[in-house]
Description:
Elements: H1 2-27, H2 29-41, H3 59-90, H4 95-101, H5 103-127, H6 139-157
Amino acid sequence: xxxxxxxxxxxxGIALYYTLVVFNNLTDFSANYEFIQHVLSxxxxxxxxxxxxxALTSPTxxxxxxxxxxxxxxVTMILAWWGLARLIRAVRDSAVAFNAGKRLAIVALTxxxxxxxxxxLDVGGEWFLMWQSHTWNGQEEAFRMFVIVAxxxxxxxxxxxxxxx
Length: 165
């Protein structure tokens, strides 16, 4: 029961994180919109950068990117809470039932990993060269969240047995 509780608490922590992220992005829209705007515009890349043709300066494109990220976070949040509810319902069931109850939480955590990897590290970091900006470089935060979520996913993926504590 302790192992199952640990897994559920960690999934709850990720669900809470996404709840706060979505709340913050909706109630203080301009804060992270500015981040997206600068990364896509590549306006803090070093002078003479030969990849500036990649820059996207259209406010409409910035909004589409930002709303896509918020939607991605919202879906991740819903799936994480729903996955947690399934784990709670299965907590006293057999190992087979609890393992089956992990599916939605696994999907939520995978969706989260893909966001940090694809949207922030791949697209933002490498395509829009976010790493070259001293002001608008979110790679450390993206890597930190990728590692945290990966750790939770790896723990969750450990199969249950009926004789665990």
